[in-house]
Amino acid sequence: MKIIYFNIATMLLTATLGILMATKSIRRRSHKIFLLMIVELFVVTGVSLGAIIMDNMASGNAILQFCLHGIYLLGHTATILMVLLYICSIADVMFKLWKSPLAVLAIFTPIAVLHILLIVNCFVPIIYHIESGAYVRDFLYPIVYVIGAVYFFELGFSIIKSRKVINWSAITALIFLYPLIGAAMVVELIFPHIVIEPFMNAIALLVMFVNITKPEVYIDPTTGVNNEESFKIKLKQAFYNKKPYKIILVGTVNYMSIAELLGGSKFDDYNKYIASKLREIDAFCKTHLFIAHVGNGKFRILIEESHYDTLQLLIDNIFHQLGKKHSFGSIDVEPIPAICVLSCPEEVDSVEKYIFFSSIFPAFSENKITYARDLLQDRKFIVEAHIDQIVDNALRNDLIQVYFQPIYDTRTGKIVSCEALTRVNDPDYGWIDTETFIKAAERSGAIHRVGDTVFDKALAFLSSDEYKALDMKGMEINISVAECLDKSLISKYDALLRKHHLDPKLVNLEITETAATTKIGTFYKNVSMIHEMGSYLSIDDFGSGYSNINRMVALPVSVVKFDRSLVLLDESEKGHRVVRRMIEVVKEMGYEIVIEGVETKEQLESFKEFGVEYIQGWYFSKALPPEEFIKFVTEFNNK
Questions:
Q1: Residue 367: which of 322, 332, 313, 314 has the closest Cα?
Q2: What is the C-alpha radius of gyration for the chain, rounded to an integer number of angstroms?
Q3: Would the N or C end of the chain have less CB density within 10 A of its end CB?
Q4: How many CB atoms are closer than 10 A to CB 413?
Q5: What are the tens digits of pLDDT across the range 307-345?
Q6: H-helix or E-strand containing 637?
Q7: Within 13 Å and on the Cβ side, how many CA atoms surround 247?
Q8: What pTM did the predictor assign?
């Protein structure tokens, strides 16, 4: 008598797994295959249970009994095949499988052979037969185990091949199949009355269910689509497998404003709204997209090669739908969409390149659709893409130059000082935007070396006989937030002053207005010590940031430099009154004022009328290299 309890337990377990799996909100091909595996095992186990009952009863219906055993043999082999296909799916290599005739043969030949043998078995008993109501194995029955062994070998090969793109919990769950199914095969071979293999398969599926099909790993709880980690895993697989994808970067340029306007919970509603729109568009275009929410109003989409024909329709719909005004309660928002389309692996073949495109694309895609192929022809984008390399090259090959922009004294009509400004001329990329260069240096940590170089060259020029002959007040040099937070700043600054034999009073260090809002103790300590050494301090870019008077008062500052934006503000009637009042307040606080960005005679006269002491801008001169600066100041002051 064959035991049926394992089959009953298997059907109960697979039914439970099927219900749990069906309730999961994960829309992935691999999860559909897993659900199909559960259904297949449930059906096969039911067939096996029917065959066992007929065997135990010595049923007289030999044809039905024969068919049930044949279906079971096919089904139990198909279970292993489906696990193999499942691995291919979670490793995202199915596209390779269908493109390789050799791989297709390797996967489907064993089960095809079993089909042929079972057909032959219908006429000539070579695998099994029914005799007097009993199930009897024939001489070729071991080939069923050989076919199973072949699939187990292919299974192991696939696990090893895909180990770099499958997480270790999944690999562990898949490896767990071997002792379970191996033990089941041995038991059934020695004790044919114990049909335990379906139960072991069910246990293996349970382990895989717990370790692989975890929604909390893949799903963003706010929007219900895939999360950022899930998207990076998918990208890593695509890059490793060289799978063709179009990556669609979807962003909201004004998401910060929307977040502030809506607040926490309503901003979550905004993200849910965007996710729902993307799903609607996916359903309309029938593209089976992989959609992920990566935070801050940003979504990422993968579209497979088979759906490239609908790409334009898809992105046009996304752009149109996301740019529509929408109401959240009593609040109306009008997103400004930014969309960029990347080709994998042609344009993006690594996670690092994806991260770069992802971080920089909104600046190039505001309220429009851009393509990576076009961005890669854009000089500014190319510079941004290689800026870290440019910074490193500039430091290694001494490409950092220091130019000097004159500062005009409205009281004497002379050039009395200058600001030292960083300039870089890369042999491959030409002149590099200073702001881009400095930001990259700050990001990479190279800003300290850049600052040291600029300081050294600026102070060398300040100490030169040619500069001294101009009889000017001194020089202004910018200092970054990162440098102000450097504990070794004072010792380095003092060493450079000694190296060039300079009086600290000749140097005016400019710190940005936003830097002045820094609360860290090291910042205040360094700034105070620089002042105690005798150097002057200026607040740079005043009016472009927080304009926090309290913080300015706390610093030992003697000069305030108004940002160019205030020059433009002064051109309107209301702006003129605002700028005048700001100047009055700053002067009443005892600060001298430098106005940056003056380009016309009208602007010059306006600020002279306000009583501003110093003017800087292209009206007088752009920043000049040392030799040209000396010539310009000499001629200007001797007029």
A1: 322
A2: 37
A3: C
A4: 11
A5: 999 999 999 999 999 888 888 878 888 888 889 999 998
A6: helix 626-637
A7: 30
A8: 0.68
